[in-house]
């Protein structure tokens, strides 16, 4: 399938800039076209095979435990109806504990679900999945968090007498190239009585060796990171795959290394992926609690709730803009 049928011209220009200037293919481009289906297959498997280690299950357990407290906080402002704004929505499944709680405990509440993602494929999955299980209305919005502030979007989504809960779940923040700036964009898009619920993986260096092996052995991950390159007519056999843990940046990094010079075409311009030159294809940051707190503070938030999984591998943060 030609690259132009999957990625817009602006997206191709962005991909080309990252490849030329950073030797990187941004993670967000994995989730287009067939990549969206690959991601759903991978996360579905992690829910059924050794799911206790899955970040998605850790997050679901934490949300289920804390969801009552979250909506008690919104109720303190007098809100009985809720506007859920889901950034980097994926397939929508991280929202299920939230909507299940509302369906069971606040059945008269009016609910709006507004997924936001760069991938229209993911927007389709999220909208259909949530509406299949819950009585919600809402709007889909295509937006790239790297493109800057999205206050113009959230302004149009706000409704009178509805509490706004922003979601940034699934450890999506761990893949972002400029985490502090992304948090600033959230704060700029929010009103004083809005809440942001965010999930993030925590740093346990003693586990990194095991995690690296999992990243190597999971064929689904290799399939995912190959997605944008396949649309550029490259093949798996054209690359060597490498995973490292960058201690200085506290992040896992995945690289594709061309086995030979590969010519690709983006936005009507030809570019060569040089043999032996690694291309970063994903990053997955691990946070200390101190770093997470500092990032929120510097971005202009106050933290209302900070809770972790029993094994301290995952954190869930509820925050509001600081006055």
Describe this structure in words.
The protein is α/β, with parallel strands linked by helices. It has two domains: 3-31 and 219-285, no CATH class; 51-202 and 287-321, Rossmann fold. It contains ten helices and twelve strands. A hairpin with a 2-residue loop joins β8 and β9 (269-273). α2 (34-48) runs antiparallel to α9 and α6 (151-157) packs parallel to α7 (179-189). The chain starts with 8 loop residues before the first helix and ends with a strand.
Task: Name the descriptors.
alpha/beta; single chain; 10 helices; seven-stranded mixed β-sheet; 2 domains; globular; 12 strands; Rossmann fold; 323 residues
Uncertain stretches: none
Helix count from the secondary structure assignment: 10
User: Could you report the average pLDDT, rounded to the nearest whole number?
Assistant: 90
Distance between the termini: 50 Å
Biggest β-sheet: strands ordered side by side in the sheet: 3-2-1-4-5-12-11
Structural class: alpha/beta
Strand content: 15-25%
- Order of H and E elements: HHHEHEHEHEHEHHEEEEEHEE
Please identify the top-level CATH class of the largest domain.
Alpha Beta
- CATH homologous superfamily of the largest domain - what is it? Vaccinia Virus protein VP39
Q: State the major sheet.
A: 7 strands, mixed
Roughly how much helix do the residues carry, as a percent range? 25-40%
């Amino acid at each position: 399938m030609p690259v132009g049928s999957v990625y817009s011209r602006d997206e191709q220009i962005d991909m080309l800039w990252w490849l030329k200037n950073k030797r990187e293919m941004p993670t967000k481009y994995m989730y287009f076209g067939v990549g969206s289906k690959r991601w759903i297959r991978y996360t579905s498997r992690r829910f059924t095979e050794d799911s206790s280690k899955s970040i998605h299950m850790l997050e679901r357990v934490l949300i289920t435990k804390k969801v009552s407290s979250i909506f008690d906080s919104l109720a303190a402002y007098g809100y009985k109806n809720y506007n859920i704004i889901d950034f980097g929505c994926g397939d929508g499944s991280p929202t299920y504990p939230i909507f299940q709680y509302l369906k069971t405990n606040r059945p008269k509440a009016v609910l709006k679900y507004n997924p936001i993602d760069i991938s229209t494929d993911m927007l389709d999955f999220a909208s259909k999945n949530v509406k299949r299980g819950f009585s919600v209305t809402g709007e889909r919005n295509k937006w790239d968090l790297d493109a800057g502030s999205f206050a113009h979007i959230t302004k149009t989504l706000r409704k009178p007498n509805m509490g706004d809960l922003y979601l940034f779940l699934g450890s999506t923040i761990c893949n972002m190239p400029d985490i502090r700036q992304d948090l600033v964009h959230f704060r700029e898009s929010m009103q004083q009585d809005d809440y942001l619920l965010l999930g993030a993986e925590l740093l346990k260096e003693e586990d990194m060796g095991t995690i690296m092996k999992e990243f190597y052995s999971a064929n689904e991950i290799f399939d995912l990171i190959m997605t944008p390159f396949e649309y550029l007519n490259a093949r798996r056999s054209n690359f060597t795959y490498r995973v490292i843990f960058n201690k200085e940046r506290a992040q896992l990094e995945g690289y594709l290394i061309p086995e030979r010079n590969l010519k690709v075409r983006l936005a009507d311009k030809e570019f060569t992926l040089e043999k032996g030159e690694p291309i970063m294809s994903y990053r997955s940051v691990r946070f200390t609690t101190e770093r997470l707190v500092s990032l929120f503070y510097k971005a202009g938030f106050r933290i209302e709730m900070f809770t972790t999984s029993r094994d301290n591998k995952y954190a869930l943060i509820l925050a509001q803009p600081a006055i």
